[in-house]
Amino acid sequence: MSAELERLKEASLEWKVHVLGGPSEPRTIVDGREGVIVLCSNNYLGLANHPKLKEAALDAVREFGAGSGSVRVIAGTMTIHEELERELASFKGVEDSIVFQSGFAANAGCIQQLVDEGDLIVSDELNHGSIIDGCRLTRAERTIYKHRDVDDLKRVLETSGKYRRVLVITDGVFSMDGDIAPLDKIVKVAGDHGAMVYVDDAHGDGVLGENGRGIVNHFGLEGKVDFEMGTFSKAFGVVGGYIVGDQIMKRFFLNKVRPYLLSGSHPPATVAACIAAIRLVREDRKLVERLWENTKYFKSKLKQLGFDTGNSETPITPIMVGESSLAQRFAEECLGMGVFVLPIVYPMVAKGKARIRIIVTAAHSKEDLDDALAVFQKVGMKLGVIH
Ligand SMILES: Cc1ncc(COP(=O)(O)O)c(C=O)c1O
């Protein structure tokens, strides 16, 4: 263990965990320092500390207790677990949904059940680690296609005739670059070759589509994507993964997914906060609008300052800096000036593609954003990222 830790340290890969001394808010206490502007949370809509979510969680504790008592299939399904699945299905405009402990558990647990020996998984080269782990748990063969490259996907699918089943998997919004999968084209090409499609919309739900209904709605693909996965840990501000679809899908996963069958279900407070989050997003259309207003404002200002924001099309905004050490230095300097951002370095991204990953939320005020921009300008000039 120590040798491995030494290796991580030498490669600048050992995590330094920064600690929040208060709720996830646009400004909070970080490592004991007050008023730090947070630009690296996934709390897109600012719901993590929303009074309605907190109230719902407290009410659920009073009514149902602190824990669920079991796994879902034994004695760990309460009426609120079922209410959440109905609420989510209604928000997404589908027949039913199934909720897991996390998005990671959903990917790790579901993908492995969809394919087996004699099948093929075709995965975008930049898919999230939880998809990669889900794929590793199958006995199916696995191959990748070039990032967002539908011609390359087609090339792979043209040679897939010998497999019994083929599953194409993609992130909806790519978590490091903020670009969007061409899901309409992927669905078409997959359909032409008899392949199924699985989309991980962790960063699209609450962000893309009409009132945050996600990537399937964004492309008008309702009913055409075989498996639509998402999470409550980002825009919805809580925790929990899910797949939405029809009742057959739900019955299949309910009987097959190991984290669902073998690991404790969500505590009541979590479930109730998730229900409250969906209701809020449905009722308050301004949340998603504000997220996009802030995103557009911040991105345009970054570009005016001369920063390279890569191919981002969503609130996930990278500032491309190149070398890993430079990204780390950039983030440290920002934190020193009261702005919390995350350096993303090799091997999380390719060598020479290190970046600062920023996520603006609906809750940031213009003042928060302007103060952060002033810090980026200073740090960018000091480190020669902009001139
Ligand atoms: C694309 C993607 N999928 C899945 C996950 C896992 O979601 P969760 O935090 O709910 O486990 C993440 C989280 O980082 C993600 O970015």
Itemize the secondary structure elements and their pairings.
Layout: H1 2-10, E1 27-30, E2 33-38, H2 51-64, H3 79-92, E3 96-100, H4 103-114, E4 120-124, H5 129-136, E5 141-145, H6 150-158, E6 166-171, H7 183-192, E7 196-200, H8 215-218, E8 227-231, E9 241-245, H9 247-256, H10 258-262, H11 268-283, H12 286-305, E10 316-322, H13 324-336, E11 339-340, E12 342-344, E13 354-359, H14 366-382
Parallel strand pairs: 2-11, 4-5, 4-6, 6-7, 7-8
Antiparallel strand pairs: 1-2, 3-9, 8-9, 10-13, 12-13
Bound molecules: pyridoxal-5'-phosphate (PLP).
Describe this structure in words.
This protein has helices at residues 2-10, 51-64, 79-92, 103-114, 129-136, 150-158, 183-192, 215-218, 247-256, 258-262, 268-283, 286-305, 324-336, 366-382; strands at 27-30, 33-38, 96-100, 120-124, 141-145, 166-171, 196-200, 227-231, 241-245, 316-322, 339-340, 342-344, 354-359. It is of the alpha/beta class. It has two domains: 2-38 and 286-382, Aspartate Aminotransferase, domain 1; 51-283, Aspartate Aminotransferase, domain 2 (3-Layer(aba) Sandwich), CATH 3.40.640. A hairpin with a 2-residue loop joins β1 (27-30) and β2. It is globular, with a radius of gyration of 21 Å. 49% of the residues are buried. The mean pLDDT is 96.
